[in-house]
Write a structure and sequence with these properties.
The complex is a heterodimer. Chain A is built from three helices and eleven strands. In chain A, a hairpin with a 2-residue loop joins strand 10 and strand 11. Helices cover 12% and strands 46% of the residues of chain A. Chain A is mainly beta. The longest helix of chain A has 8 residues, at 137-144. In chain A, the strands form three sheets. Chain A has a five-stranded mixed β-sheet with strand order 3-6-7-5-4. In chain A, strands 2-1-8 form a three-stranded antiparallel β-sheet, with no helix packed on it. Chain B is built from 26 helices and 33 strands. In chain B, the strands form eight sheets. In chain B, strands 14-18-19-17-16-15 form a six-stranded mixed β-sheet. Chain B has a five-stranded mixed β-sheet with strand order 6-8-9-11-10. In chain B, strands 12-13-22-21-20 form a five-stranded mixed barrel. By secondary structure, chain B is an alpha+beta fold. Classes of the chains: A mainly beta, B alpha+beta.
Chain lengths: 153, 821
């Protein structure tokens, strides 16, 4: 994040707001069919086909232990993230907007977070519409997705 | 007119690498016997490299090649098997060449001392009879000789040959001394070149680099070269233009088969080996091929979607077109997939040298035998298994082989044999590395495992050999006392396993102490497009690779069995373990299995129940994300014709997950059969108000008799049945069988090895094929196999074999007693 803050893509999921600097986001895709991946961890919503490549979809609400498990199959919106490893996307209930958040409004994650939260949340951005959780892409890909190869990317 | 330097250079590096690799093999064969053909091929190869290196002015390469050639010619002339040291030296020289050619971007700048040591060793021992190396003779060369020498080293890029062949013209290399063109001025020369250029004859020209060692009067020697593609013989064309060439060297003439440069300038014998290959083979970059494969994959998907659409369409023409396209695409796909296949020999040819060097380093003697080099495998897979194989083979020499002295003492041949074999089995490639060395020392592995705290001593003692050998795959596990440069660090087998696993394969190690070790690698020949069966289960679609499917069977519910709470199916008198897909994967939806697929992998043989079969389709395999707890049920994901994703079931993974701990398929069948015999049908009968059953082992006869037919002879009950005396098995330990004389009874007649025996019953109730397993207590009498519950009633299961045996035993003394009476 530069000193002047940055442009953030804000989306809602499970009633919470999440945001990512747009540099991290590759695309927003709506109306997808999600194929569940049996035997995978709960935070894995499943797989989607994005123009011939298989993308794994994570549910941040479950990853952060806010919710147990959700079943989403049809008409799902996702935010595809720029990663080097296996193609990754987050489930979104709906995408709100792209907003400029000044640096002064971005705070590092408070220390009283739960274990699940502190591993994943990098910062909290304050916007006129409320607080936005900013996930840490690096830790998420490192900790929860152990693919070495990216044959699909 | 410019030559794409980088392209030529890449092709040079690639060609040289192939030649060097081949040379290595040849050298190793030379060590065994000197065959003129071997030497000729070797010389030819080196000569080619030397010639090519000339273009790039790789002085070091030229000199090493030359020195090596000289030495090898010497060997050829003498006809003696070269010494061990010489082979070592020659191999080092090859390595040096490899690194000079491939290693640096600018090999001409390679440090001199680096290669000169090799060069010195190559030329040293034969200083007296040595032929002059180019560096030394150069001092006495005049311009003409110099040019000849240079020309003999020139190789022209392939594209010139292609051009000449296509236009059916002469391809030649002409060297001229610009200082020696008589009356011609530079301007005239320029005009002449222009003429050549206009008629598209001049392919390239430039100054020939001069090197030191020309005669002193060569200060006025300005060598230029022209590469010409002319309609007439080059000498004539040059004469027409009044040029005075130093050398006219024809590379290719129309109407002839390809001419090797040496034909025109007979400096050294041998023809260029790629000459023949040039027309049939093409070097293509791997990334381009991969692109091609990816695109083909997408085409296949698009084809599938189109065919689906066309099938439901009423447009006849569309349907025909779709079909035609479908055939073409299938063909395309087949061909494209084959471009990536390479024979395993490419990998295997590296190993003789590896074995030799490891053997030398460890003071052992070993020979390598290779079979199955012709089997073709995807290049990516070959690359991936190269390192594991190197490791395994090295291990075989270092750990496996005993020293020659020990081997002699044991009565084995001094030189150990390592057999590297590859074969195709059920869609898998099975590569085995076997040695006839010391084998696995299970005791030592046990001890090491205990020392490292991996297993308790008791557990280690009772663990089987298979289980113990698994420890060899743990990181940091080495039984070798001292660490050597080659092995013993305990890093290795774990890496081998993880590499092979990443390919979806497996590694196993086994062997008898003292007799050798066998390492088996099983690698799926998975290409990225698979022919699959699409099945449905609980509303999910799954893809099962055709290569694992033996047959598809419709479930006949009468043939479903449950053995120790595991499902099985009686298929043509064999009991096949059944895995229920919905249960295994944990699908929430309702599943009603109507068919099952008989799947066979290297290890497992089982049935997989599914709700229905949808289709066969070719799918592109996409990798799955890996999470920390790897699930092994799926081999990948496939994008279907309707653009949705279906998961590809991994037969081997399912076998493992379903805990079919039956080792190999044969054993599973055997064990299943054993269970079948133990649990099959029970005959249920009622006697004195009790439900009693026994296992049927031979077909019992059931007869109705009157209680009057039961007699008591010497304290034993017998039945006189149609003139035959049948001893009754007494059930006194269980019930009291007292019948009134007019009661009608059932007599169950059992046939055993020792004769016929009968059991009296009030009534035979049923034959049950699926009796719940008996509960067996220590307190149970030997006569009873156990007690179980059927419906509401308690059923006592008789141990009939025991009863019969006891009755047979009692027969003898009692008869004797009877005789006394």
């Amino acid at each position: 994040m530069s000193a002047s803050g940055g442009e953030f893509l804000i989306w809602k999921s499970g009633g919470r707001s999440y945001g990512l600097e747009i540099g991290h986001c590759r695309e927003v895709v709506r109306g997808l069919h999600v194929t569940p991946l049996p035997g995978s961890p709960h935070y894995v919503g499943g797989l989607v086909n994005l123009r011939g490549s298989v993308v794994v979809v994570f549910d941040l609400d479950v990853l952060l232990a806010y919710e147990k498990e959700k079943t989403v199959r049809e008409n799902v919106s996702i935010i595809r993230i720029r990663t080097h490893g296996y193609p990754l996307a987050f489930i979104a209930d709906h995408v709100v907007d792209v907003t400029h958040v000044p640096a002064s409004q971005i705070e590092t994650a408070p220390s009283n977070l739960s274990e699940a939260e502190s591993a994943i949340i990098q910062a909290i951005a304050k916007t006129p519409d409320g607080l936005v959780l900013v996930p840490n892409i690096e830790t998420i890909t490192e900790k929860f997705l152990t693919n070495k190869r990216s044959s699909n990317a | 007119m410019d030559i794409n330097y980088q392209e030529i250079r890449d092709s040079f590096v690639a060609t040289s690498r192939d030649i060097l690799q081949r040379s290595e093999t040849l050298l190793l064969e030379m060590e065994k016997s000197v065959d003129a053909n071997l030497i000729t091929e070797l010389l030819r190869g080196l000569h080619t490299i030397k010639g090519n290196a000339g273009i790039f002015e790789l002085d070091a390469v030229i000199r090493i090649c030359h020195a090596l050639e000289t030495r090898i010619e010497e060997i050829r002339d003498k006809g003696v098997v070269p010494s061990h040291d010489f082979i070592d030296l020659a191999l080092t020289a090859l390595d040096k060449l490899q690194s000079l050619i491939g290693g640096q971007q600018d090999p001409s700048a390679a440090s001199k001392t680096d290669y000169e040591a090799v060069l010195e060793r190559l030329s040293a021992p034969k200083a007296a009879s040595r032929q002059a190396t180019p560096a030394e003779t150069a001092g006495t060369l005049n311009g003409l000789e110099w040019s000849k020498k240079k020309t003999s080293q020139v190789r022209l890029p392939d594209k010139y040959f292609e051009l000449a062949k296509k236009t059916n013209r002469f391809l030649s290399f002409v060297a001229l001394d610009l200082f020696d063109q008589g009356e011609l001025t530079v301007r005239d020369l320029y005009e002449k070149l222009q003429v050549l250029h206009r008629e598209k004859s001049l392919l390239a020209f430039g100054a020939l680099p001069k090197d030191k060692g020309l005669t002193s009067d060569s200060a006025h020697f300005l060598p230029y070269y022209l590469i010409l593609c002319t309609n007439t013989v080059v000498n004539e064309r040059i004469a027409e233009l009044k040029l005075r060439p130093l050398i006219c060297h024809s590379f290719w003439q129309p109407g002839h088969t390809e001419k090797s440069p040496e034909a025109a300038v007979p400096v050294e014998p041998g023809t260029s080996p790629e000459g023949k290959l040039r027309e049939t083979h093409l070097k293509v970059s791997v990334s381009l091929l991969n692109n091609l494969i990816e695109i083909t994959g997408e085409i296949v998907l698009a084809r599938n979607a189109l065919v689906r659409k066309a099938d439901t369409s009423s447009d006849q023409a569309l349907s025909t077109m779709a079909k035609k396209l479908s055939y073409l695409v299938a063909d395309l796909q087949d061909k494209v997939m084959r471009t990536r296949l390479q024979p395993l020999g490419i990998l295997f040819q590296r190993f003789p040298r590896l074995v030799r060097e490891t053997a030398v380093a460890t003071g052992k003697k070993a020979e390598l035998r290779v079979t199955g080099s012709e089997i073709e495998l995807d290049k990516a897979i070959i690359d991936e298994i190269a390192d594991p194989l190197v490791h395994i083979i090295r291990n075989a020499v270092d750990h496996g082989m005993e020293s020659p002295e020990v081997r002699r003492r044991l009565g084995k041949a001094e030189a150990g044999t390592i057999t590297l074999a590859a074969e195709m089995r059920e869609g898998n490639i099975v590569i085995t590395v076997a040695d006839d060395g010391a084998g696995l020392d299970y005791e030592r592995i046990r001890n090491t495992a205990v020392e490292k705290g991996l297993i308790s001593r008791d557990a280690a003692r009772s663990a089987g050999e298979q289980e113990i050998s698994e420890y060899l795959f743990l990181s940091g596990f080495s039984t070798k006392a001292e660490v050597s440069t080659i092995s013993g660090r305990g890093v290795g087998m774990d890496v081998v396993r993880s590499n092979v696993k990443s390919l979806g394969g497996s590694v196993e190690i086994s062997g008898k102490t003292g007799e050798g070790t066998l390492v088996t690698l099983i690698i799926p020949q998975t290409l990225s497009i698979l022919t699959c069966l699409i099945v449905e289960c609980a509303g999910f679609r799954f893809v099962v690779p055709q290569q694992n499917i033996v047959e598809v069977v419709k479930i006949d519910h009468d043939k479903l069995k449950t053995i120790q709470s595991k499902k099985a199916y009686e298929l043509r008198n064999r009991l096949l373990p059944l895995v229920e897909t919905s249960v295994l994967i944990g699908l929430a939806g309702r599943s009603e299995a109507s068919v099952f697929l008989v799947l066979k992998t290297e290890k497992y043989h089982f049935g997989l129940t599914v709700d229905s079969i949808l289709d066969t389709e070719e799918v592109v395999v996409k990798s799955l994300p890996h999470f920390n707890d790897d699930n092994q049920l799926f081999a990948g994901a496939a994008i279907m014709g309707d653009a949705q994703i279906a998961l590809i079931l991994d037969a081997a993974g399912i076998g493992k997950q379903a805990n079919l701990q039956l080792g190999d398929a044969d054993r599973s069948v055997k064990q299943a059969k054993l269970l079948q015999v133990e649990t099959t049908r029970h005959l249920l009968f009622a006697a004195a108000g009790k439900q009693i059953a026994f296992k049927i082992f031979s077909n019992p006869r059931i007869e109705r008799i009157s209680a009057a037919a039961v007699e008591s002879v010497v304290g034993r009950k017998i039945v006189n049945f149609r003139g035959e005396i049948i001893p009754l098995l007494s059930l006194d330990f269980l019930i009291e069988q007292v019948y009134s004389a007019d009661a009608e009874l059932a007599l169950i007649i059992l046939q055993s090895d020792t004769g016929k025996y009968g059991i009296l019953a009030d009534e035979v109730t049923d034959v049950i094929s699926d009796l719940p397993l008996p509960r067996r207590d220590e307190s149970n009498a030997a006569e009873i196999e156990g007690i179980t519950i059927l419906g509401e009633a308690t059923v006592v299961i008789l141990n009939t074999p025991y009863l019969i045996e006891r009755a047979a035993r009692r027969n003898l003394p009692e008869l004797a007693a009877g005789a006394r009476l």
